[in-house]
C-alpha cells in the first residue's frame, strides 16, 4: 500500500533532552526574576491540535499527548496528565526531572500549594491560560504565600532556538452547499443573542467559531481545517475579523470584506481598548479566551462577561445541509472502511502486517475516494496490548506486528462535506471466551445508547450510564467518556455536547456525537465500538413530552467473530441484524469484487 500522506509515525518524544532543557529554563527564569513557570499544552486559542510552534510542552518534556501541563520550580518539576496518558507520560518523559502526576488525584493547584514557598514568584504566559484558569493558579499561589506573575515573553520561547515559524496557511471560503447558512444570517443570530445577554459585543477567540461564523476554513493546525484568528461581533455595527493578511488571497479578502472589517491579529488589542473606553460589557468565551484579552478590556475600563460562547451551541446543532453532508461523508467513509476491513481479513492471517501498515492501508482506501482532505486525527491502531491504551499513537519505535488476538483501529476523515470518526475492534484468529464476553458487553452498551429515547432537556451525563450498565454488571468499566461532539468539516472533538459523566449540556436536534463505549485490560487487549449518531426528534404515540432519539450515521460491519449471542437479548440481536442489513444496503453499491463478497459474509444475520 502507498505510504500515509496525512500522518507521520516519527517518534517525536525524546526524554534525553528533558534535563538540559529544564536547566536552561530555570536559568531563564532566574534571569527574569521568577521562581517557577507553568507550561500548558495549548496555544492562544486553547486548541486540542496545535501548530508545531505551540508545542512547548512536547519540546520541553518530550510528552506528546493532546493534553498536559508542566510546572517547573527551582528545585522541583512535575507534569500533569489525565487517565488517558498515565502510561504514555512515563515512556516519553525523564521522570527523574519531571514527576508524573495524575490531574485528578493530585491537581496542579494542590501540588503548587505543597511545593511553592512564601515570597516566591510563579510565572505564566497570559496568552496561554484562560481567565478562570488564572484564578485557580492565583488561589494556589495565595495559599502558599507566593504570587502569580504574568510574563511579557514566554521563557520557553526564549530558550527554544529552533522554534518553528507561526503557521500561515491559506484561508478558503466554505461553500454554501456545505455550510447551509450564510454568514450574514449567522451574524444576525449572534447579535440577537447578545441582546438577550445584555452584552455590547462578543469576542470570538475559538477559531472553530470564527470558521463557522464567517464560513471559512484554513490549515494552520494539523487534521482540523482551522484558520487561526479572532473576531469581534458588536451588537450593532460591522464585525471585525482578525486574520493575518498573508493568509488571504484577493478573492477571499474581498468576500470577507463584504461582511466585516478585516484586520491583522495584532490590532485586536486596540479594538478591546476602544470597547473598554466606551465602558462596554463584552462577552468572552470562558473556554478559550486568553487572560491577556480579558485583562486588556478591564484595564481600559470595560466590563468582561466571561461565560459560554453563544456560537458554540449554534455551531453544535447542524443545519439540513450539514446533516446531509455528514450522511454523504459517512457513506463514502463506510465504503473505504469496508475496503480496508476486507483487505485486513485477507492479509492479517498471512502474517506480516504491522500497526503502521494497517494505518497506511486505511488512509490509502480513504484517499481512493478522491475526496479526502485530511485525516481527522492520527489513527489509533493498536495490536494486542497496545489496543488497551485508549489514546495510543503508533510510532516507528512502538510499531507492533499484528498477531493472533485483538486489533483495534480508531480513525476518521476530513471531507469537505463532513467529518468522520469510527472505531472497530476485530479478532485476528480465534478470540478467547473473555474477549468475546467483553466485546459483547461493550456492544450491549453501544446498542443501549443507539436505541435510547429521552425527553427534551436530557444531558449526555444522564445517558452515559446506559453504555456502562452491561460492564458494571460484571464489575467492569472504562475511564473515558462514552461520546464527544463532532464538527462539520471542523474538529473531530466538538463541544459543548458530550456523552459523559460531566456532559451537562442538554442534547438538541442536529447535534452529532460519537457513541464509543470500551473496555481495556491493561497489558492484554482493548475493545471499543464507535459510530457517530445524530440527535433527532422522535415521535411517540401518546407522548406527553417532546422526545428525542438518535439516527446512526456510521455504517461499517461489527465483527461477528467477537459476538457472544448468548449474552444478547432478542431485541439486541434484532438491532445488530438490522444494523448489518442497513450497512449492506448502503455500502454494497459502493464496493465491488472481493469487498462485496466479504461484506455479504460480514453482515450475515445471526441468531442464538
Automatic annotation (TrEMBL):
Residues 546-606 form the Peptidase M24 C-terminal domain. InterPro entries: Creatin/AminoP/Spt16_N, Creatinase/aminopeptidase-like, Creatinase_N, Pept_M24, Pept_M24B, Peptidase_M24_C, X-Pro_aminopeptidase_P. Residues 21-151 form the Creatinase N-terminal domain. Pfam families: Creatinase_N, Creatinase_N_2, Peptidase_M24, Peptidase_M24_C. It comes from the Bacteria. GO terms for cellular component: cytoplasm. GO terms for molecular function: metal ion binding; metalloaminopeptidase activity. Gene3D superfamilies: Creatinase/methionine aminopeptidase superfamily, Creatinase/prolidase N-terminal domain. Residues 326-536 form the Peptidase M24 domain. Keywords: Aminopeptidase, Hydrolase, Metal-binding, Protease. Belongs to the peptidase M24B family. PANTHER family: XAA-PRO AMINOPEPTIDASE 1. This is X-Pro aminopeptidase.
Amino acid at each position: 500500500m502507498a505510504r500515509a500522506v496525512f500522518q507521520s509515525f516519527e517518534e517525536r518524544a525524546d526524554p534525553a533532552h528533558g534535563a538540559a532543557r529544564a536547566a536552561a529554563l530555570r536559568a531563564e527564569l532566574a534571569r527574569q526574576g521568577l521562581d517557577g513557570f507553568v507550561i500548558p499544552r495549548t496555544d492562544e486559542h486553547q486548541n486540542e491540535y496545535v501548530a508545531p510552534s505551540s508545542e512547548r510542552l512536547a519540546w520541553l518534556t518530550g510528552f506528546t499527548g493532546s493534553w498536559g501541563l508542566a510546572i517547573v520550580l527551582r528545585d522541583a518539576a512535575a507534569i500533569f496528565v489525565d487517565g488517558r496518558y498515565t502510561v504514555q507520560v512515563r515512556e516519553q518523559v525523564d521522570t527523574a526531572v519531571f514527576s508524573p502526576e495524575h490531574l485528578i488525584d493530585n491537581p496542579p493547584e494542590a501540588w503548587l500549594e505543597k511545593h511553592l514557598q512564601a515570597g516566591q514568584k510563579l510565572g505564566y504566559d497570559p496568552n496561554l491560560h484562560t481567565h478562570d484558569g488564572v484564578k485557580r493558579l492565583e488561589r494556589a499561589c495565595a495559599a502558599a504565600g507566593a504570587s502569580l506573575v504574568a510574563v511579557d515573553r514566554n521563557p520557553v520561547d526564549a530558550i527554544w532556538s529552533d522554534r518553528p515559524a507561526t503557521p500561515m496557511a491559506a484561508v478558503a471560503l466554505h461553500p454554501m452547499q456545505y455550510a447551509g447558512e450564510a454568514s450574514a444570517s449567522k451574524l444576525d443570530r449572534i447579535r440577537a443573542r447578545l441582546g438577550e445577554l445584555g452584552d455590547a459585543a462578543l469576542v470570538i477567540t475559538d477559531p472553530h467559531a470564527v470558521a463557522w461564523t464567517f464560513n471559512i476554513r484554513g490549515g494552520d493546525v494539523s487534521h482540523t481545517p482551522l484558520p487561526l484568528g479572532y473576531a469581534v461581533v458588536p451588537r450593532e455595527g460591522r464585525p471585525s475579523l482578525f486574520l493575518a493578511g498573508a493568509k488571504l488571497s484577493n478573492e477571499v479578502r474581498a468576500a470577507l470584506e463584504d461582511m466585516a472589517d478585516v484586520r491583522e491579529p495584532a490590532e485586536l488589542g486596540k479594538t478591546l481598548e476602544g470597547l473598554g473606553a466606551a465602558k462596554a460589557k463584552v462577552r468572552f468565551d470562558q473556554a478559550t479566551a486568553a487572560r491577556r484579552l480579558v485583562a486588556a478590556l478591564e484595564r481600559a475600563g470595560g466590563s468582561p462577561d466571561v461565560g459560554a460562547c453563544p456560537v458554540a451551541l449554534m455551531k453544535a446543532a447542524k443545519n439540513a445541509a450539514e446533516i446531509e453532508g455528514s450522511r454523504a461523508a459517512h457513506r463514502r467513509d463506510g465504503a473505504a472502511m469496508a475496503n480496508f476491513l476486507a483487505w485486513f481479513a485477507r492479509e492479517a492471517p498471512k502474517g506480516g502486517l504491522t500497526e503502521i501498515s494497517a494505518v497506511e492501508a486505511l488512509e490509502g482506501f480513504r484517499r481512493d475516494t478522491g475526496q479526502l482532505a485530511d485525516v481527522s486525527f492520527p489513527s489509533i491502531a493498536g495490536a494486542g496490548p497496545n489496543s488497551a491504551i485508549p489514546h495510543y499513537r503508533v510510532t516507528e519505535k512502538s510499531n507492533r506486528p499484528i498477531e493472533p488476538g485483538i486489533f483495534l483501529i480508531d480513525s476518521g476523515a476530513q471531507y469537505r462535506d463532513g467529518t468522520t470518526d469510527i472505531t472497530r475492534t476485530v479478532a485476528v484468529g480465534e478470540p478467547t471466551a473473555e474477549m468475546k464476553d467483553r466485546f459483547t458487553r461493550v456492544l450491549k452498551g453501544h446498542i443501549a445508547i443507539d436505541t435510547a429515547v429521552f425527553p427534551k432537556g436530557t444531558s449526555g451525563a444522564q445517558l452515559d450510564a446506559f453504555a456502562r450498565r452491561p460492564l458494571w454488571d460484571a464489575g467492569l468499566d472504562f475511564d473515558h467518556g462514552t461520546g464527544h461532539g463532532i464538527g462539520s468539516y471542523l474538529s473531530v472533538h466538538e463541544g459543548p455536547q458530550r456523552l459523559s459523566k460531566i456532559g451537562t449540556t442538554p442534547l438538541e436536534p442536529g447535534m452529532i456525537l460519537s457513541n464509543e463505549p470500551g473496555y481495556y485490560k491493561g497489558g492484554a487487549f482493548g475493545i471499543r465500538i464507535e459510530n457517530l449518531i445524530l440527535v433527532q426528534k422522535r415521535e411517540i404515540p401518546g407522548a406527553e413530552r417532546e422526545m428525542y432519539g438518535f439516527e446512526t450515521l456510521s455504517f461499517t460491519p461489527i465483527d461477528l467473530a467477537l459476538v457472544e449471542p448468548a449474552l444478547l437479548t432478542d431485541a439486541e440481536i434484532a438491532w445488530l441484524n438490522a444494523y448489518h442489513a442497513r450497512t449492506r444496503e448502503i455500502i454494497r453499491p459502493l464496493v465491488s469484487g472481493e469487498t462485496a463478497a466479504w461484506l455479504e459474509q460480514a453482515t450475515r444475520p445471526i441468531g442464538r
